Amino acid sequence: MLANLSLRTKLSIYVGAAISAAVALCIALFIFQAATRINSESESARRLANDFIVSALPSINQLDKPEAELERLIKEANHLRHARIYSSRTSVQDDTGNSIESPPNWFTRFLTPNSESREIEVVTKSGFEDKIIIKANPADEITEIWQEIKWISIASLGVIFATVLIISIVVSNTLSPLAGYVQALSLLDAGKRTLTVAGDKTPEFKIIADRINGLSQTLSKLDEENHLLIQKMITLQDNERKEIARDLHDEFGPALFMSRICVGELKKKITISVGEDKYLNDWSAVDQNIDKLQQVNRKILGRLRPAALEEMGLSGAIEAMIKSWRKTDPSVEMVYYFPEEKLTMTEIQSVTAYRIIQESLTNIYRHSRATKVNVRLFLEKLTPSPQLVISVADNGIGIGENSHDGIGLRGMKERMLIVGGELKISRLSPSGTEIKALMPLS
Ligand SMILES: Nc1ncnc2c1ncn2[C@@H]1O[C@H](COP(=O)(O)OP(=O)(O)OP(=O)(O)O)[C@@H](O)[C@H]1O
Ligand SMILES: [Mg+2]
User: Fold this and answer.
1) Residue 82: what are its φ and ψ, rounded to 5°?
2) Is residue 394 in contact with ligand 1, taking CB distance under 6 Å?
3) How many whole angstroms from 408 Cα to the centroid of ligand 1?
4) Quick one: three-class SS letters along 126-181?
5) Residues 84-104 pLDDT 10s
6) Is the peptide bond before 203 cis (omega within 30 degrees of 0)?
7) C-alpha–C-alpha distance, residues 284 and 266, integer Å
8) pLDDT value at position 219?
9) Where is average pLDDT lowest: 150-164, 191-205, 323-337, 409-423?
10) Cα torsion for 98, 101, 105, 111, to the nearest 10°?
């Protein structure tokens, strides 16, 4: 139940409860002791009163009119503490109702469970009869105890309140560095690595601050290594793609082309020598298969190395890519805009722009369920160098809040870092995603 409470509240509750329990125990002991004391005092007061009256009775018994003497005796006996003495002929007022605030009945009853009264018969020679009643009456003592308990309780409440207040202040002050540590960890989680948490004098917090600083350095190193690894991977991937594309283009392509020509020649020869078209179907099948292989080869080449980049430039290559996606899924409406002014770009810049659009479109088709895609490239004339903005936006489900970057997005970011640019990924309203790459063209 207390698990969800703050440390300050928990400490206040525990300490407050401990002090209250200690005070309650002290009060209980105090009451038990007082009860024992009051009972023995009352008993001895009753005995004393009894002895006092019994010793005076023989002389009263001799009197013809003993009323006045009896009254005087009762009055004198009433000077004894904790006893109330009265004659059965007089009505007597219990003086438990005091002028000071009187204790509740349960309290009085608890302290004086034994409140039996003693009676002494008086019979004089002249035939006068009366009864003297002796009752325990520790009312003033009980009232005093009640008042003491009241003051102890009020003082204890004051102590509990002051303690809780002090705990709150001390805990708040002591734990104040925690807010800084939480903020530092949130920043680390958000990807900010170059942070230093100021140490605290408290040894426990100094350790935490040192660990956070250590964590920040380790993460920063890991980021750096990651960065280099991904850059290496991209370069290797590009080189590998280039090599495979070259082999496909230079070896596989001509071989297929030659095969097709040879098959054509063979057809002519067979037709001449056999003089009929009876192998025409077989020839067509082989020719069609070689044609299919050529098409597949071109498709793979297009994916591996944007050959079109060399042949048609960035604009044509992107257009070819978009055409290919339109063919793959005609239900997705694609809008494409390329700047009219001539772009002066290095090979790596062109490949980067091409790959960014290629990965963005692949992601859209794989993850977004979009029906509209907008690919726009435009030039921003910034100083000192203009900047090419590549924006690929879709109206799909949008990148999930908790989705993690795969190789695709990380590769895009790394590619942009290599060319000194920046990649921005944002969710669009009401839905969709925009990948925006800002690439300086120097
Ligand atoms: N246009 C988009 N719409 C919705 N979600 C997207 C979009 N682009 C990316 N995502 C989400 O971002 C995640 C990361 O994308 P990323 O390209 O890095 O990895 P991937 O496509 O899953 O795998 P790969 O490493 O093969 O590219 C995806 O898994 C997907 O959940
Ligand atoms: Mg991807």
Assistant:
1) 65, 20
2) yes
3) 7
4) CCCEEEEEEEECCHHHHHHHHHHHHHHHHHHHHHHHHHHHHHHHHHHHHHHHHHHH
5) 888 887 755 555 444 456 788
6) no
7) 12
8) 92
9) 191-205
10) -80
pTM over 0.85: no
Residues 6+ away with beta carbon under 8 Å from 325 = 332, 334, 361, 365
Q: What is the mean pLDDT of residues 153-168?
A: 91
Looking at the chain, which residues constitute the CATH 3.30.565.10 domain(s)? 312-442
Distance CA 388, CA 356 (A): 12
- Proximal ligand: closest to the CA of 433: 1
Residue nearest atom 10 in ligand 1 by C-alpha distance: 399
Tokens of 420: 């000194």
| Ligand 1 nearest atom to the CA of residue 435, by list position | 1
Going by alpha carbons, the residue nearest to atom 6 of ligand 1 is 399
pLDDT, one tens digit per residue, over 337-367 is 999 888 888 888 998 999 899 999 999 999 9
- Tell how far the Cα of 357 is from the centroid of ligand 2, in angstroms: 11
Q: Is 422 within 8 Å of 370 (Cβ atoms)?
A: no
- Residues of the chain with pLDDT > 70, as a percent, come to 95
What CATH number has the domain spanning 312-442?
3.30.565.10
